[in-house]
Amino acid sequence: SSRGSPSLFSQAAEVTNPKEVWKWDEMVGAGVAEYMRAYPKRMQRRVRRGIPQCYRWQVWKARVGVLDSDPLLRRYEQLCGSPNASTKQIEVDVSRTFPEIFSSLGSQQALLRVLNAYAAHNPEVGYCQGMNFVVALLLL
Length: 140
Prior knowledge:
By secondary structure, this protein is mostly helical.
């Protein structure tokens, strides 16, 4: 437990209760960003009870203020799929990164997308071994 007020996402767990999932369905349908502004305490309680996996990306985007029409988001999507000088090495290293945690194809693809996007965005640095573990920790 940290001192002071914990962050909104610090203690989130996976949701399995159908009633909780229904609440998230309703909230996402109304708009996550709007709901966060209108009901911050309720949102904090729901996050602490857990965010359904299917809504985590939407909640994260709303929390950091990224809109679906944001040029930065479009640029990230372009960079994710752009082969670059580091892509082959990233593909080799992804399967070696926390294999017990990142064993599913979806989680490995997420790691690959972030690393590839960064390498394409910053070609002077590209990719170097060790970045995969830093990004993997951020994706957890």
